[in-house]
Amino acid sequence: MQWIQKYKNTSWIDWVKIILAIDIASAGVGLIFNIKFFHIIAFLFGFFSRFFIGVLYLILALILIKQVLHGRKKEKIREEREMKDSFHQGLTQVKHKMKKIVQEGEKISEQLLEKIDHTLDKGEAFVKQKGREVQEEIKQHIK
After folding, report:
1. Is residue 96 in some structural domain?
2. Terminal CA-to-CA distance of the chain, rounded, Å?
């Protein structure tokens, strides 16, 4: 009898939900045993209760459809967010790889420039040395 005390404090909308659940359950039992229109509550008070339960069924159907469509929208939004995040993550990875490639390119170009500079310095030293030798040779032939 304590369960009656629990339901004493429920709101009217909760009672409507309970009545609708009982009628849906009875319709399910009717479908299982092949008893047509086995709605306990719907036919209890004649036309008015059938009309009231029918309206509740329509409202329930609309709520279910709305939740299904809203759930699909949420799933679509989640997929779009995942794609966007994946795209940004891919861009970030490409950015980091490009940064590494540019850094390696800078290192290689610096090494290449140093080798070219060293070779030019050797060539300049060679030309200066050979120039001095040529000048000395010319001075010896002129004397």
Report:
1. yes
2. 138
The pTM (predicted TM-score) of the whole model is: 0.40
68-106 pLDDT, tens digit each: 777 777 777 788 888 888 888 888 888 899 999 999 999
Lookup: tokens for 133:
């030798």
- Determine, yes or no, domain membership for 87: yes
Q: What is the sign of the dihedral through the CA atoms of 44, 48, 51 and 52?
A: negative
Domain count, the chain: 1
Between helix 12-32 and helix 47-142 the angle, nearest 10°, is: 100
Measured CA to CA, the distance from residue 76 to residue 78 in angstroms comes to: 5
The residue segments making up the domain with residue 52 are 2-107
Query: In the numeric block, which tokens belong to residue 89?
Result: 């993550």
Q: For residue range 2-32, what is the model confidence (pLDDT) as tens digits?
A: 666 776 777 777 777 777 788 888 877 777 7
